[in-house]
Amino acid sequence: MKAKYETRSINPISAAVFVVIMLVIGVLCIWTKPPVKLFIGIFGAGLGGAALVASAFRIAQQWEKAVVLRMGKFRGLRGPGLFIVVPIIDQVSSYVDQRLRVTDIRAEKTLTKDTVPVTVDAVVYWTVWDVEKAALEVQAYGDAVSFVALTELRDTIGQHELADLLQNREKVAAELQRVLDELTNPWGITCNSVGIKDIVIPAGLSDAMSKQAQAERERRARIILGTAETEISEKFAEASRKYIDNPIALQLRGMNMLYEGLKEKGSLILVPSSALESMNLGAIGGLSALADQHRNGSLTE
Question: Whole-prediction pTM value?
Fold first, then answer.
């Protein structure tokens, strides 16, 4: 971003018209009679005086400060609004913008701490808080901010691993903002904030990281499934201990299982032979089938 060092001089067209008028006045003074020469001389002097007075009035915008030099030395700051300078002696060297500014920086193929090449896009928000320092101590403060921000961004990337950059963008941006503020404060500039817009990594590494994340998710899923199986087996073992000395409870459980299975029409239940003997499901099933047959016969009649 280029610095807004703006010097406003007289309009070139106005200056050219003024020069032409003065040349015409000079020619008329040479080729006319003395009374006319006197009139032309007075008119020319008046015109020159008016132009000199007009050049003393300057205007700075609401967000600007004008840097005034007198005979090459710093005289002071003027503005915003209308202000007056001494013609010929005073010079407005620049108008400094004090609004919040934005500088885009891009660090291409910078190595992280774990030697991974990345491209980082960031944006820096900064303000000129001391116009005198910015105008007198830095030749082009806008370029200086841009270059120092790019340098510090590269240094910050080199001090962090890739995982840290990806997971802690806010922390990295805050650290970069602090460093930039320390470096630019002597110039009369403050770094308000830094934002990291994007971190681009190589395509091959991106695919590998995606596969790694997928494998990690599958590993966690298997661990969760195994944990669930363990908990279920523990609950079954606890339930079996309650049914050992309580055959009536076991039979009630069997009846509940049959009821749940026979609620739907056309359902088929496969029961191990050991369960038939231990839970007396055969008798219960026969009674259930007989009840269903009797109910169906009653509906037919």
Answer: 0.58
Model pLDDT, residue 114:
82
Mind listing the pLDDT tens digit for each residue in 2-61? 444 444 544 444 555 555 566 565 655 555 556 655 555 565 566 666 676 777 888 888
Distance separating alpha carbons of residues 42 and 63, to the nearest angstrom: 42
Q: Point out the residues of the chain with pLDDT beneath 50.
A: 1-7, 9-13, 287, 290, 299-300
Q: What topology is assigned to 101-201 in CATH?
A: Tetrahydropterin Synthase; Chain A (3.30.479)
Q: What are the residue boundaries of the structural domains of the chain, listed by start?
A: 12-97, 101-201, 210-241, 246-301
